[in-house]
Design a protein that fits this description.
It is a single chain. This protein has 389 residues and is an alpha/beta fold. 24% of the residues lie in helices and 25% in strands. It has ten helices and 19 strands. Strands 1, 4, 5, 6, 9, 10, 17, 18 and 19 form a nine-stranded mixed beta sheet that branches. The chain has a six-stranded parallel beta sheet with strand order 13-12-11-14-15-16, sandwiched between helices. Helix 8 links the parallel strand 15 and strand 16. The longest helix has 19 residues. Bound molecules: zinc ion (2 copies). The site of one zinc ion has 4 residues, from loops.
Length: 389
């Protein structure tokens, strides 16, 4: 039985096995299901039983190419690494001294637990921790980034620092719980842009999960108008349901910059949240904002992109890059979701069993049946696929 010294459990209600099913990454694109020990929470950590985990585009990057994962200071392949980072679950064991959470509490989990001691962590920018990935060999800086620098969520149990937990209410489904971090990333983008969004005009480029959540969060914060650009009509339609006042299909519009300005009364918007990673997106974004406007880059492109620096300087345009979901943005996103300010589950399209992870990944990667967010659940029979809840 799982009974590590100093760790509080409640085996009657939440029995914990000593080993668990876990997917590990071999060569690029190669995942295999095996057994791993259930990890032991240390000081300021809890053990979370993973009830649902969503697949993110970054998981696909890691599984097929490696970065931004960094395992033992290098690529994540053939190191027994378990990817997966957008999960939620139930607290089932408490590390020594933990009284902030109780066994049985449902939580969404932020990805990044910073070291807590570097300059950026002290500023709340723990997703940019200066000790990122320094937690192997003789070095233990206390930094964790689930599914990036330490084992993630494509398994049944994982340890998490208490500062990464976001309590969720009983009426929030497991699948919706996995979207708290997605909405949190959108919230962080708008936080970094200044946060005072009510009455300001916002354009979101790229209707992927983060782009669609950026539309929802911007609208919840009172932005007007909120404009969404993209290439797929079905996703643009979901954007409208989540609060976009206008959408632009860039395939059908010769000049997207002019079209966005037209939709904003002829002038540039105050903010752009760039979520498309398209090569032309940065230049489009800096031309979509008005003078003194702000652009947040929330998607990473594969190649270097050309940027019109003179235009940026002449017009005093601010350009921000964000990583993940810092400054407790997930807590603010969860509050909006709790208050039913937007229906995050509109982006959840498919659910699979943990044993069917390769199929789930194929759905996400190839956008089978217009998949957007694909969720995997440990407590579900294999070969059972459920349309969105
Ligand atoms: Zn993600
Ligand atoms: Zn740090």
């Amino acid at each position: 039985m799982y009974a590590p010294p100093g760790v509080k459990t409640n085996h009657n209600e939440f029995p914990i096995p000593e080993s668990q099913r876990a997917w590990t990454l071999g060569d690029p694109g190669e995942l295999s299901l095996g057994e791993k020990p259930v990890p032991v929470p240390k000081k300021a950590e809890v053990l979370v039983r993973i009830d649902a985990v969503a697949i993110c585009a970054t998981d696909l990057e890691i599984i097929y190419h490696g970065p931004p994962a960094s395992i033992q200071g290098g690529l994540p392949f053939n190191k027994g690494f378990t990817p997966g980072h957008e999960y939620m679950g139930t607290v089932v064991a408490l590390g020594p001294g933990v009284d902030e959470y109780g066994i049985g509490e449902r939580v969404a989990v932020e990805i990044h637990a910073g070291c807590g001691q570097c300059k950026r962590c002290r500023e709340g920018m723990y997703t940019s921790c200066h000790n990122y990935g320094l937690n192997y060999g003789d070095v233990d800086k206390g930094h964790r980034a689930n599914g990036f620098t330490t084992d993630g969520g494509f398994c049944e149990y994982q340890v998490n620092n208490i500062n990464t937990l976001v309590p969720i209410q009983d009426d929030m489904s497991d699948a919706e719980g996995t979207l708290v971090v997605t909405a949190g990333t959108a919230m962080y983008a708008l936080t970094e842009l200044g946060g005072l969004v009510a009455g300001e005009s916002v354009c979101v480029t790229g209707p992927g999960p983060i782009g669609l959540m950026a539309v929802a969060v911007a609208k919840a914060l009172g932005a007007q108008p909120v404009i969404l650009t993209g290439t797929r009509d079905n996703r643009l339609e979901i954007g409208k349901e989540l609060g976009a006042d206008a959408v632009v299909n860039i395939r059908k519009t010769p000049n997207v910059v002019e079209e966005v300005k037209k939709l904003n009364g002829g002038k540039g918007v105050d903010y752009v949240v760039e979520c498309s990673a398209a090569t032309s997106a940065v230049n489009d974004a800096v031309r979509m904002v008005n003078r003194g406007g702000k652009v947040c880059l929330a998607a990473f492109a594969h190649e270097e992109v050309p940027v019109d620096v003179a235009h940026i300087v002449r017009n005093n345009i601010y350009l921000y890059g964000i990583r993940g979901e810092g400054k407790s943005a997930t807590h603010r996103a969860e509050a909006y979701m709790r208050q039913k300010r937007f229906e995050a589950t509109r982006i959840h399209t498919h659910t699979f069993a943990l044993d069917d992870l390769p199929t789930a990944i194929r759905y996400a990667k190839d956008r089978v049946e217009d998949a957007i967010k694909v969720v995997v659940k440990a407590k579900m029979d294999a070969a059972q696929k459920v349309a969105a809840e």
